[in-house]
Hints:
- By secondary structure, this protein is mainly alpha-helical.
- It contains 13 helices and no strands.
- It has 2 domains: 2-49; 71-285, Orthogonal Bundle (MetI-like fold), CATH 1.10.3720.
- 26% of the residues are buried.
Amino acid sequence: MSSLASNLSTRGQAEPRKRFSLSRTLALVLLTIMALLWIIPLLWAVDTSLKPEAETTTVPVSWLASHFTGDAYHNVFSTADIFRWYFNSALTALISTVLVIVLASLAAFGLSRIRFRARGPLFWIILAGLMVPGQILIVPLFTEMQQMNLVNTYWGIILPQIASPLAVFIFKQFFDNIPQELEEAAIVDGASRFRVYWQIWMPLARTAISAVAIITFIGVWNNFLWPFIVATGVDMMTLPVGLATVQTSYGVRYAQIMASAVAGGLPVLIVFLFFQRQIIQGVAGTGLKG
Length: 290
């Protein structure tokens, strides 16, 4: 009787393990398929950019070329001021990221820790900004930049991109989870509100800062529409805008088009690969769940 009970118990423990193993296998298969769907176009772009131009239009299309060459990259870097565009993109992305972190965290700290009558409605108004398409703001923003003499300047590119309702939401979700006793103890010791924010809240919010920084940096780096409108000179163009103008002069030159695309996307890919753990931890720590 005891052996029968032991067998039933063992079988009952084996079935959940089997189900867990099956679900894990299915998850791995699904993730592998999704990874391949993402990486195959990237590999195709790199492969095409390294082919001789004549072999990019052959039929049937083949993955491997007769020989690989860097002529497409040489032509892209020699015919365009691409290093200047790299600098412009890096400068505007870094400054925008720093300003978004500072302004969004200050706003979130006030909404999370300071009690005032319109706090709830103000937070919902900020969240409503997530539902406003950025395209409808192009005309008023350009008019404002024009009146402030900021067209074709770095600040003209940066300022409209530092208003981030998503960043405010991420920081507020994180600040709401910090125990109130930490702030009360600091205030009892004589700390001001700003000192509490700067010396207690911000060091604790490293995961949220990492998430906001990476999301903002990638968003500003990849932004095409606003820099395309406000940067009227070639020397002020960001990388996406500059590469788009160069691509229009290539005609049907797939190797050079792919080389310019790889050159534009490679820095963002490197940032993501190095900081993907911080992105995941930041999003998980701020309570953003699908």
